[in-house]
Design a protein that fits this description.
The complex is a heterotrimer of chains A (867), B (434) and C (203). By secondary structure, chain A is an alpha/beta fold. Helices cover 26% and strands 19% of the residues of chain A. A 7-stranded mixed beta sheet of chain A has the order 15-14-27-26-25-16-17, with helices on both faces. Chain A has a 6-stranded mixed β-barrel with strand order 33-37-34-36-35-38. In chain A, β11 and β12 form a beta hairpin. In chain A, α9 packs parallel to α21 and α9 crosses α22. With 434 residues, chain B is an alpha/beta fold. Chain B folds into 3 domains: 22-229, NADH-ubiquinone oxidoreductase 51kDa subunit (Rossmann fold); 240-326, Roll (Ubiquitin-like (UB roll)), CATH 3.10.20; 331-428, de novo design (two linked rop proteins), CATH 1.20.1440.230. Chain B has 17 helices and 10 strands. In chain B, the strands form 3 sheets. Chain B has a 4-stranded parallel beta sheet with strand order 3-2-1-4, with helices on both faces. A 4-stranded mixed beta sheet of chain B has the order 8-7-10-9, with no helix packed on it. The two termini of chain B are 37 Å apart. Chain C has a 4-stranded mixed beta sheet with strand order 2-1-3-4, covered by helices on one side. The radius of gyration of chain C is 22 Å and the shape is elongated. Chain C starts with 5 loop residues before the first helix and ends with a helix. Classes of the chains: A alpha/beta (867), B alpha/beta (434), C alpha+beta (203). At the A-B interface, β4 and α2 of A face α14, α15 and α16 of B. The complex binds flavin mononucleotide, iron/sulfur cluster (SF4) and FE2/S2 (inorganic) cluster.
Chain lengths: 867, 434, 203
């Protein structure tokens, strides 16, 4: 395929010869050549349907020149097209007039007014007066079709963008056309609301004000909004966004059409959590995740008390200095929510000032950082265009939603193959070519089966047919194969999957890997050295040794580690073994740097308020290693500071200088000393950034079409980047790239001992849900109702065996106690396994998994009992 | 005088009350043609049909043999039979499915053999409850009789036929909408190109769609030879055809008569056929081929009933339905009712069809029921022009399927032929007929 | 747990088996769901969605494209009177008015005793016996007001229960067996024929 001959065809547009790609849509070829054809239903990220008829142009054919939809017709050589004749104009005016016939023309009260493609096209092409004197169509308006989306059917122009998005892109037609003719309407089922995690996209692409987002509704008028381009840090896919505000109040986040990343789409969590940022500032309960921390605090007489920065820094320095006198006396946990520059500053502080190696940006819920660094890294694009993708992850729709969309599109639209290691419920199942059920503890056996041609290990839940097909697809060397690797089961030791990964990487040397670590800038934090053996600039120090989160927790419990610096306030919400973590925090001195409150703060001695997303400048690195800019849109509340400043000031308390007086300087230092492209990304805020280690042709970002992405003001008016979205390594000539880890550097543990499951127990799979219990969800009024209901999912065999059905409440006996939860049927859960979401709460709001999770065990077994 | 000498090709069993039973079918020559076809090469069967020059009876009038041969290169996966018959005043397929379902089934098997497909679907209009029962019974009988299923009549050829019910939507008669409905979706016509479902039809595979009457002609053609069929009729319009005659005539009904040899006048006035206009009133207009077709005035009564002959005069023979409007008929009311039909039946995809049909209907309603304005008449013409630019026939269109440009036919015809009636409606503030 | 009765569920499964793709059975399955419940209940829609592999919203939306499916309960007898062109010329509108008076319900509504729902139909393809009237999609061929009234009397008295079953277009449509053609064999023959042709053409 490499040397396909690139031929072009020549078409004539309004008498001018235009070069086009064979098979290209006429509307796109014309647009590239500077002739914009008006449109409504066409959207560049979906299959054309040609229903609105706005894009009719005259095309010569055997029956003379006829009107044809430019959005649907593919160009062919010699095609003669006229887009500006009287006939075309009359047809287009006619379509506008027809569209407006039943349209309520309530622009003054419509959210879309001012940024409405129908309004714009009417001005450009409409006749300006109405001949329609009849009574218009009436519907009850607006109806709430889901928790986040409202529908005003009178405004709908039946372009089918939303319904196509739901069925074609999201793969879940929860809204669909109902009825026929001019009574046709978009509707959900009365029994199932529109609760897709992608629902906000339909609002974004609606070309009129028919779909509106509840959180944004009536909150601003488009002309009051200011916007910046930035990167979403809700998960680690790094979708490109614009952030809009009205004054110093965030109003809206919209997806930007970034070719290598998100294609304009966002998940609802990324789109709507902005209200957690300027969230419920009025509550002053620092232990609530909905609270923004805006002032420094120290513990006085057992209570957190607001103090000056000077006082708080002094107290923090005192605690840390004292502890740092002993070996392993102090460590740091967290940092995935930082920018690269913030993480770099803290790394300098921790290693340079405190002299500790006990640093970990992961909470024990990820994968070995050295292993991740050593695997040949794939980009998202490579995964989404690979002929074969193998997933070893939880449900990607729940973990990295936009990566799910990209892979789903690859499978459905381009018919590429997905091999899924099916640990439990999974939204890719229906489009996967091969799905191999894996129970807790079995990943390595499955990897063994994939890497050797011999007979299948006993006891696996699939047969020779499936494994044979998978082996055939992966091929001998794994060339062209991308493994997407995450942590599907929180209740299983990471070592199980890591062993499997090493095996796969060794056996398939040409395969690439895309880490599905999910927490915002975790990849950037690791690349900045927030991990025992890692160093800034994706570096590696073979001789270093330090403690990870789990080891630090143990050291705190035993009294060996006397203080901890928490970079982010959500340790207790994320660590697997909450029980041990609470003990650890109770026995150590705790300094927390955070923008949000949370239960962890109950243990804090000092709290330092930090600026959060949309308030701070910097860069972040996504799963593929793409470094992009995050841009402040509003000023941080109270006395919150950016992390670079906090780290620098704290160092000053030690009489030292980090040499970092600004974010720019941090970015420059990183890039100049390591070649890591932070400065380039920072300097190019509206580009698709730079992928670490990739040298490639800079790709031009396509000009933003306001018809496709209404609401984002176009390039000229808002200064958005039409410029390079490049995948080049920054040109940091003076840099000495640090050495990165290789497979040989990965520490091989003593191997995992997976105990056999006993016949009466079920193995537990604790998986991730998008609508989890994290700060974003708790802090966002729009989303907090959407948190999943705590449920144990079981296969029908196991339900029958236990004699229970969906809705029954059972006792779950785990290694540390009993939890009570309702059960539900899900046959995607392998037999002998039960699946439950991480962060599940029981009826009284208590973390229901605490009795079950035990990070010291390879797998976890529970017994279910009905009372 | 009508020429009634031609054999009855598809309606030969009509005098028997039990014409729908296998027993009657077998006793009147049933399945003889299929046995003969199975002794021939499939291509030779197709050649006979080609020679017969059998024009499709569903509306577009495309020669069946040509449609099939265009596909020879890529093996056809499915044969789909269109029995959705919903074009107003068309009721000849209704007649065939209830009265002679075995003839239809035999025709399907012959076509399937010629095309070498192993799976056929008969899409029947959902409102044909009895027709569905009868065709399903005929299919069951055919399996029993060895005419369907594995190795038909001991030959190498196998075929399954599935009877698929519609559920009330005119647009499902349009072949690509029908395919969508057969895939379990809304009946949204597919956008062209490709221009034939032949290329990407059911499940994206090559598919032939033919009308019920088209299929019902095949046993006779195979039995008597394509040449015998082609000897009937004239010009491109060979053979006989079922005409559904309705409206203000004494004997409305389905009549099988030779094409071209007969004229509209023959069909309407012959005592063995339409028997003349009720109360011997004068004819005001005729709708020559279903309500999608532009109207004719009485001046064209002597036009032969042939596809090209009608096309030359700017209309179409379409679905073979002929509606007679006499001088007691209010043409505004008639055209309004037809637009109301299109407005109810537009699938709703295309803006001009969805919104245009409703708009035109409402303006027509006002004209007929009071509230019409003089400028409405030209407004109507302009709206029509926005759906079918130029208002020519065959039409240009701004829509995906031909339903769109069919909307203007009656309104445009009525205004063009009877503008005075519209003016009178405006002046009277409603219908002068009361 | 099936909402469909055993017999309906079995017929539904047989229907699904007739098609290369399950979704194709959508319309027949919706007819069955309506046969059981008299209209499309939420439970019926959910079961059709499950059997055709899509969502309730999609099934509901598809069903509403078609006139014969009802999302609300309708009368035991759905009376359709055609007023389209041929029937219009034969007094279809007058017949519809008469029917409305006789049944005591407006067009589109259900009589208070729940027995009749009256509809204005589009052309029912029986234009020679105009105006055309259907009851539960059976042609009743009553063209005069008097004939219509005696039809209603017969329906009320249950004298037409055989000719006009309540609900269910497919109530008497039964296929006597599944598919018979040896599909795999044919596919294999096809494939080899295609290959043969391809090699012939490349030569
Ligand atoms: C709006 C519309 C409605 C149609 N309805 C029917 C119909 O009810 N029955 C039919 O056989 N063809 C109908 N057709 C024509 C079909 O699309 C198709 O041409 C025909 O079934 C092909 O069969 P034939 O070649 O045997 O005529 C319709 C076409 C259009 C555009
Ligand atoms: S022309 Fe009308 S019926 Fe045909 S596809 Fe368009 S909207 Fe549907
Ligand atoms: S028909 Fe082309 S943009 Fe809608």
């Amino acid at each position: 395929m490499a040397d396909v001959i690139r031929t072009t065809v020549t078409i004539t547009v309004n008498g001018r010869a235009v070069e086009a790609q064979p098979g290209e849509l006429l509307i796109e070829a014309a647009e590239r050549a500077g002739t914009y054809v008006p449109r409504f239903c066409y959207h560049p990220r979906m299959e054309p349907v040609g229903v609105c008829r706005m894009c009719l142009v005259e095309v010569d054919g055997p029956r003379g020149a006829t009107l044809q939809p430019a959005c649907y017709l593919k160009v062919n050589d010699g095609m003669n097209v006229v887009t500006d004749s009287e006939k075309v104009k009359k047809a287009q005016d006619g379509v506008i007039e027809f569209l407006l016939a039943n349209h309520p023309l309530d622009c003054p009260v419509c959210d879309k007014g001012g940024e409405c493609p129908l309004q714009d096209q009417t001005l450009a092409h409409g006749s300006g007066e109405t001949r329609f004197v009849e009574e218009k169509r009436h519907f009850v308006k607006p109806v709430e079709i889901g928790e986040l989306v409202l529908l005003d059917r009178e405004r709908c122009i039946q372009c089918a963008r939303c319904t196509r998005f739901a069925s074609e892109v999201a793969g879940d037609p929860q809204i669909a056309f109902a009825g026929r003719g001019d009574l046709i309407e978009v509707a959900p089922s009365p029994t199932q609301p529109f609760d897709s995690v992608f629902s906000g996209n339909t609002v974004q692409i609606c070309p009129v004000g028919a779909l509106t987002a509840k959180p944004y509704r009536f909150s601003a008028r488009p002309w009051d909004l200011e916007q910046v381009e930035s990167t979403c840090t809700t998960c680690s896919v790094g979708c490109r966004i614009v952030v809009q505000s009205s004054g110093n109040r965030l109003t809206r986040v919209l997806g930007v059409d970034s070719d290598p990343v998100n294609h304009g789409w966002l998940c609802d969590k990324g789109r709507f959590t902005l209200d957690s940022v300027d969230g419920n500032e009025d509550t002053s309960d620092p232990f609530s995740a909905a609270t923004r921390i805006t002032e420094p605090m120290v513990r006085r007489d057992g209570r957190l008390t607001k103090v000056s920065w000077g006082e708080a820094l002094g107290e923090a320095a005192r605690i840390l200095r004292e502890a740092a006198n002993e070996p392993h006396g102090v460590g740091a946990i967290g940092g995935a929510a930082l920018t690269n520059e913030g993480a770099f500053a803290w790394e300098r502080f921790l290693r340079g000032v405190l002299g500790t190696e006990d640093i970990d940006a992961q909470y024990g819920d990820g994968l070995d950082a050295v292993l991740i660094q050593s695997l040949p890294r794939a980009t998202i694009d490579e995964a989404a265009t690979a002929p074969v993708v193998v997933t070893l992850t939880g449900d990607l729709r729940e973990e990295l939603p936009i990566l799910f969309l990209r892979l789903r599109e690859s499978a459905v639209r381009y018919r590429r193959s997905i091999i899924e290691l099916a640990f439990g419920r999974s939204s890719l199942r229906s489009v996967a070519r091969v799905s191999l059920p894996v129970r807790p503890g079995e990943a390595n056996l499955v990897a063994q089966a994939l890497t050797h041609d011999g007979p299948l290990p006993l006891g696996l839940a699939f047969g020779e047919g499936e494994i044979g097909e998978a082996r055939r697809l992966i091929g001998e060397s794994g060339e062209g194969v991308v493994f997407v690797v995450g942590r599907p089961n929180m209740a299983e030791s990471a070592a199980v999957l890591e062993t499997a990964l090493r095996r796969l990487a060794e056996r398939f040397p040409l395969a690439k890997f895309l880490p599905a670590l999910r927490r915002s800038n975790v990849v950037g934090a690791l690349d900045m050295g927030l991990s025992p053996r890692l160093r800034p600039g994706r570096g590696f120090e073979p001789l270093a040794s330090g403690r990870d989160t789990r080891e630090q927790i143990e050291a705190m419990r035993s009294g060996e580690q006397r203080a901890v610096l928490l970079l982010g306030g959500c340790l207790l919400g994320n660590v697997l073994d909450v029980f041990s973590a609470r003990e650890a925090l109770a026995s150590a001195n705790v300094v927390v740097v955070t923008g949000h409150g949370g239960a962890t703060l109950e243990f804090a001695n000092v709290v330092l308020p930090a600026a959060v997303q949309h308030e701070r400048l910097g860069t972040v690195t996504n799963i593929e290693g793409r470094v992009t800019c995050v841009t402040p849109k509003i000023v941080a509340p109270g006395s919150a500071w950016p992390d670079v400043a906090i780290a620098a000031e704290l160092a000053r308390e030690f009489g030292q200088s980090l040499g970092l007086s600004s974010v720019e300087q941090a970015a420059r230092t990183i890039q100049e000393s390591t070649g890591y492209p932070t400065l380039s990304a920072l300097a190019d805020a509206s580009s698709d950034g730079y992928v670490v280690g990739h040298r490639g042709e800079p790709a031009l970002r396509r000009a933003l079409d306001p018809m496709a992405f209404p609401g984002i003001r176009s390039t000229e008016t808002a200064g958005l980047g039409a410029r390079a979205g490049a995948t080049t390594l920054a040109d940091a000539t003076s840099s000495v790239a640090p050495r990165s880890a290789t497979m040989a550097d990965v520490r091989v543990g003593t191997g995992v001992d997976v105990p056999l499951a006993d016949a009466y127990s079920l193995l537990v799979n604790v998986s991730r849900r998008l609508y989890d219990d994290g700060i974003a969800m708790q802090g966002s009024p729009a989303l907090s109702n959407l948190r999943a209901v705590t449920t144990l999912y079981l296969n029908h065999f196991d339900l029958d065996r236990l004699g229970v059905t969906t809705g029954d409440v059972v006792n779950m006996n785990g290694p540390r106690g009993v939890a009570r939860m309702p059960v539900a049927l899900d046959n995607a859960v392998p037999r002998g396994t039960t699946e439950v979401a991480f962060g599940s709460r029981d009826a009284s709001g208590v973390d229901a998994l605490r009795p079950i999770l035990d990070a010291s065990k390879a797998t976890i077994q529970v017994r279910l009992e009905t009372q | 005088m009508a020429t009634l000498s031609a054999p009855r090709i598809v309606s030969s069993r009509s005098e028997f009350a039990d014409s729908h039973t296998l027993a009657r079918y077998l006793s009147t020559g049933g399945y003889v043609a299929l046995r003969k076809a199975l002794t021939m090469f499939p291509e030779d069967v197709a050649t006979e049909v080609d020679e017969a020059s059998l024009l499709g009876r569903g509306g577009a009038g495309f020669p069946a043999g040509r449609k099939w041969s265009m596909l020879r290169k890529s093996p056809v996966s499915y044969l789909v039979v269109n029995g959705d018959e919903s074009e107003p005043a068309t009721f000849k397929d209704h007649y065939l499915v209830e009265r002679d379902p075995h003839q239809l089934v035999e025709g399907i098997i012959i076509a399937a053999y010629a095309l070498q497909v192993t799976q056929a679907f008969v899409f029947l209009r959902g409102e044909f409850a009895l027709g569905l029962e009868r065709v399903q019974q005929a299919v069951n009988d055919a399996y029993e009789h060895g005419a369907l299923g594995s190795r038909i009549f001991g030959s190498e050829f196998s075929l399954d036929v599935v009877v698929h019910p519609g559920a009330g939507a005119y647009i499902c008669g349009e072949e690509t909408a029908l395919i969508e409905a057969l895939e379990g979706k809304r009946g949204f016509p597919r956008i062209k190109p490709p221009f034939f479902p032949a290329v990407t039809g059911l499940y994206g595979e090559p598919t032939v769609v033919n009308n019920v009457e088209t299929m019902s002609n095949l046993p006779w053609i195979v039995e008597h030879g394509g040449a015998a069929f082609a000897a009937l009729g004239g010009g491109r319009s060979t053979g006989t055809r079922l005409f559904a005659l309705a409206g203000r005539v004494r004997n409305p009904g389905v009549y099988e008569i030779e094409m071209v040899k007969n004229t509209f006048r023959d069909l309407i006035y012959d005592l063995q056929l339409g028997g003349g206009v009720i109360d011997d009133r004068a004819i005001k207009a005729i709708i020559p081929g279903g309500v999608s077709a532009p109207w004719f005035g009485p001046d064209l009564l002597d036009l032969p009933l042939g596809q090209d002959e009608v096309a030359e005069k700017g209309s179409m023979l379409g679905s073979g339905s002929i509606v007679v409007l006499d001088d007691t008929t209010c043409v505004v009311r008639a055209a309004w009712r037809i637009t109301k039909f299109f407005s109810r039946e537009s699938c709703g995809q295309c803006t001009p069809c969805r919104e245009g049909s409703g708009w035109i209907e409402r303006v027509m309603y006002r004209l007929e029921h009071g509230g019409g304005r003089m400028e409405d008449i030209d407004l109507l013409l302009d709206l029509c022009d926005n759906i079918a630019p130029g208002l020519t026939w065959p039409p240009q269109q701004t829509t995906i399927c031909v339903l769109g440009p069919s909307i203007p036919s009656s309104v445009h015809s009525a205004i063009q032929m009877f503008r005075d009636d519209f003016v009178a409606h405006v002046r009277r503030g409603g219908c002068p007929h009361g | 747990m099936s909402h469909f009765r055993v017999e309906i569920r079995q017929r539904a499964e047989e229907l699904v088996a007739l098609y290369p793709r399950a979704r194709s059975a959508m319309l027949p399955l919706l007819h069955l769901a309506q046969e059981q419940d008299g209209y499309l209940s939420d439970e019926g829609i959910a079961e059709v969605a499950e059997m055709t592999g899509t969502t309730p919203a999609d099934v509901r939306g598809t069903a509403l494209f078609y006139d014969m499916f009802y999302l609300e309960p309708v009368g035991k007898y759905v009376v359709g009177v055609c007023t389209n062109i041929a029937c219009l010329l034969a007094g279809g509108e007058e017949m519809l008015e008469h029917a409305s008076a006789t049944l005591g319900c407006a067009v589109g509504a259900t009589s208070s005793d729940g027995l009749f729902t009256l509809e204005e139909s589009e052309c029912l393809a029986d234009c020679n016996i105009a105006p055309c009237v259907q009851v539960n999609h059976r042609y009743v061929r009553t063209t005069t007001p008097e004939a219509f009234d005696s039809l209603v009397a017969d329906l009320r008295a249950g004298r037409l229960d055989h000719d006009v079953p309540s609900h269910g277009t497919l109530i008497r449509v039964r296929r006597s067996g599944g598919l018979h053609a040896p599909r795999a064999e044919v596919a294999a023959q096809r494939a080899s024929a295609r290959e043969a042709r391809a090699t012939r053409e490349t030569k």
